């Protein structure tokens, strides 16, 4: 079974990183009916499969009614054997078109399947398209994100392997490739910078706001003076920086130890200090530093198994149960919302991680 499920390309490309991606399909076992071309090396290489899995779904290669919890079909397959089986014998398995999946992804929330569900066996199926260029490939979410989710084997091999086809399969951009005989007939290309979203780092925005470095509003035509923002919070778009407001006492009472990757980020250190927190002084040993009235250890995802975390997990399980471990995104969300959020759930290390850290401490001491 392992050979049929994982090939070398699967091991190279899967699973995609789910961190920071809304798990809107969590708990669903999805089977695709007519969506994935049979000529693809393995169904898990397809863009649709990778989109669903990254957002929390478990995709099934074979249709087993005991396992599958939702059937996603291609328009035109309403009278297929699988849809018929679900409608007649397994009403607990909703049949929804691929538009449900893509619309949910576009809105970053799960639209209730009942709004799209196939409720009866149609006397005549909807028109479908032959070949591999399907209508849902024109969906905005698919068009915007297909290059991010595709791998070289995500598309079926083409019989005429022209440059246009192969480049589309590899997500390349062929706009600058011009046939030799046409070079004199067309004007030169300009090196235009690609569009970049003007998003700000939370910590950079907080430091700029706390130090009073704010950009002026550029709307000269609007003479109305906007009301000053009363509730603290951080906006992430560069154009909205004048409306930022930071609570200078947000982190007051916190004595913080940062993991190595965060120590090198000046904006993180300055944000904690400008908002009332303190960075703990280094002592002769790591244990002595953590015992010196430290209240929080802030760690980044890549530092979750660092020496600081190993020592902190040991102290928490022995004689410092009040020491708090928090991921750096907790600081970001606190700044964005302008209030201290409860330290639980995704902001804290899992029980399994704490157990692993304690094992590492025991192994290092033995």
UniProtKB/TrEMBL annotation:
Q: Which SMART domains match?
A: BRCT (SM00292)
Limits of the BRCT domain: 20-118, 246-348
Protein name listed in UniProt: BRCT domain-containing protein
Q: Which organism is it from?
A: Leishmania infantum
